[in-house]
From TrEMBL:
This is ABC transporter substrate-binding protein. It comes from the Bacteria. Belongs to the bacterial solute-binding protein SsuA/TauA family. It comes from Actinomadura alba. InterPro entries: SsuA/THI5. Keywords: Signal. SUPFAM superfamilies: Periplasmic binding protein-like II. It holds the Pfam family NMT1. The keyword Amino-acid biosynthesis does not apply. It is found in: Periplasm. The keyword S-adenosyl-L-methionine does not apply. Residues 98-261 form the SsuA/THI5-like domain. Gene3D superfamilies: Periplasmic binding protein-like II. Its main location: periplasm.
Length: 335
């Protein structure tokens, strides 16, 4: 639930103020993150304060949608990014990076209006497809659709009429008939899904689930958000890296134990307002939780996650010479 996934523009409770301009130093983690409900909950419950007192490590945080920019400027040690965007992050920022943790899977669905007889995107060739960007999760869908149907989603030779629209409004445009399908996030489509005016293709599976079916059975990625750090910082600050992962392990535990409460307390992070939509979102997330079980991962998980790059190279989404990102397994014998 990070980055473009969110719609709230207000600073969250635990993230605020400008990014630190000071250089990296021992005992400090400069963490730049988009507004996030789990982080807010840990802040409001005093968990982060207790962490800082217990470890002697302070966390300097800032809320921004421009995580790449702050990272490039040297103002952040750790940010979040989709795993499949990390090579682009390195190219844009000219920084060597390491994926140190995972957070949530890429959960966008391909949706159509209720009553549309389409069974897959293959049935919608030439139709209006709404997307919020030509990159991000759209790239994953491009690779999946190319692999499954031999069709192109993006680019000059797209087999669809691409309509770029605000991420918050896509499912509403779909329900009104202004587009024929959309790559939409379920948490930004709560009202339309609750009212039954839209439905998801592919048996309701997310892009991550379809990727697992094709390339990595049982895998929970690709990740819509991983935690990425500068390689030199990771090498010089193993204590801080370990503590950061411990803190987020606690955060994921709190999410599992208090998920309904978190949705109720921070509905803005799930793009819901009315009590009915809040209740719907609680039920939806209970069945389709996209938050991973553990922030830490082993080598096998990293190898499976890297298969998204094999698929993207195979389908021409990225160049053949694009290198897989580096991962830092912290569990298992080969960490």
């Amino acid at each position: 639930m990070v980055g473009a996934i969110f719609v709230s523009t207000a600073c969250s409770a635990g993230l605020g103020g400008p990014a630190s301009s000071r250089a990296a130093r021992d005992g400090v983690i400069r963490f730049t993150f988009a507004p996030d409900p789990i982080w807010d909950y840990m802040h409001d419950e005093g968990i982060i304060e207790d962490f800082e007192k217990g470890t002697g490590i302070s966390i300097e945080t800032s809320a921004t949608w421009d995580e790449f920019g702050l990272f490039a400027g040297g103002h952040a040690d750790i940010i979040s990014s989709a795993s499949f965007e990390v090579p682009g992050l390195e190219e844009e920022t000219e920084q060597d990076t390491v994926i140190i943790g995972r957070y949530n899977s890429e959960r966008s669905r391909l949706m159509v209006r209720a009553g549309n007889p389409a069974e897959s995107l293959e049935d919608l060739k030439g139709k209006r497809l709404g997307v919020f960007t030509s990159v991000s999760g759209t790239l994953v869908w491009h690779a999946l659709v190319e692999k499954m149907h031999g069709l192109s989603v993006t680019g000059k030779n797209s087999d669809f009429k691409i309509v770029v629209a605000d991420i918050q409004n896509l499912s509403n445009l779909l329900a009104r008939g202004e587009i024929d399908a959309c790559i939409c996030y379920p948490d930004l489509s709560a009202r339309e899904l609750r009212e039954g005016s839209v439905r998801a293709l592919y048996d309701g599976k997310s892009s991550a689930q379809l990727f697992a079916d094709l390339k990595a059975p049982g895998h929970d990625g690709p990740m819509g958000n991983v935690f990425v750090a500068r390689k030199d910082w990771v090498e010089e600050h193993p204590k801080e890296v370990d503590a950061f992962l411990d803190l987020w392990s606690r955060g994921l535990e709190e999410w599992r134990a208090h998920r309904d409460e978190i949705i109720e307390r921070y509905p803005q992070h799930f793009a819901v307002e009315s009590p009915r939509d809040v209740q719907f979102m609680k039920g939806y997330v209970a069945e389709h939780d996209w938050v991973v079980q553990d922030v830490r991962f082993d080598r096998q998980w990293a190898d499976d996650e890297s298969k998204i790059f094999d698929l993207m190279r195979e389908t021409g989404v990225i160049d053949g010479d694009v290198q897989d990102p580096q991962f830092l397994p912290t569990v298992g014998d080969d960490r």
